[in-house]
Amino acid sequence: MITKTGTTIVGMKYKTGVILAADTRSTQGPVVSDKNCVKIHQITDKIMCCGAGTAADASRVARMASRELRLFQNKYLRLPLVSHFRKVCTQHLHKYGGGIGAALIVGGIDSEGCHLYEIHPHGSENSALFVSLGSGSLGAIATLESRYRAMDKDEAIDLACDAVKAGILNDLYSGSNIDVCVIDYSGVEFLRNYRRIGVSENTDTLVYPLDSVRIKREEVFDIVEEY
Questions:
Q1: DSSP letter string over 40-62?
Q2: What is the model's pLDDT at position 88?
Q3: What residues does the annotated propeptide cover?
Q4: Paired sense of beta strands 17-23 and 177-184, if any
Q5: 151 Cβ neighbours under 8 A, 6+ residues apart
Q6: pLDDT tens digit string along 9-30?
């Protein structure tokens, strides 16, 4: 059975960079196949992407585009732009007319500034201040639209996590933990399992007093025959 990431992935710009966040659940039909998979992929030193849809398709497209950008960098001795990654992915996906189940959120920083794009499986793309894709994107985008504003790094991380959490709590195919990636001019910071969702807050074991169940009557049955 095909493994799908189900997924709630989020991307947003903040004052000095870009935040990407994703849940960590992948499914095979109604079964959770992996509770802690990685949906955030590194493309170059300052370009990252999140993948939703079919797990194999999303990771293969990201790896293919990463190879293209690294070949460009080695050939021309120039750092590739985020728009270069966007172009490689959209042209590749458009050739297959939506047959490749990969929806991507791309974030990065280059010589032209901070960039955030959403790329759909049929090859269309859009630039945005914030975006969410995947089966849990409805809850996530509602959180982003109601609370997004000019923010610093810590505020942006909290909002991105809350958006993914909203997707997780309203989507059976999203769950487990939240991974966060911060991209700014100093580099990339990947925060693995930054927040756990759905874990019981009360971890104390229940202890019952010995006299909590009182014996009101005692009766002995002789069921062994004596010879």
A1: EEEEETTEEEEEEEBHHHHHHHH
A2: 97
A3: 1-6
A4: antiparallel
A5: 14, 15, 159
A6: 999 999 999 999 999 999 888 8
Whole-number Å distance between alpha carbons of 41 and 49: 5
**DSSP, residue by residue, 159-186:** HHHHHHHHHHHT-TT--SEEEEEEEETT
d(CA 51, CA 134): 9
- HSE-CB at 48 with a 13 A cutoff on CA atoms is 26
pLDDT at 227: 59
Asked if residue 170 lies in contact with residue 139, where contact means CB atoms within 8 angstroms, the answer is yes
Average pLDDT along the chain:
91
Q: Give the Cα separation of 176 and 82 in Å (integer).
A: 30
Quote helix, strand, coil % in the chain, to nearest 5: 30, 35, 40
Q: Is 149 helix (H, G, I), strand (E, B) or coil?
A: coil
Find the distance separating the first CA and the last CA of the chain, reported in whole Å.
64
pTM of the complete model: 0.83
Q: Which residues contact 19 (CB under 8 A, 6 or more apart)?
A: 10, 11, 12, 13, 107, 156, 157, 160, 180, 181, 182, 183
* Residues annotated as catalytic (active site), given as ranges: 7
The pLDDT-based confidence of 202 (bands split at 50, 70, 90) is low
Domains and CATH numbers, the chain: 9-196 (3.60.20.10)
Over residues 61-90, the mean pLDDT reads 96
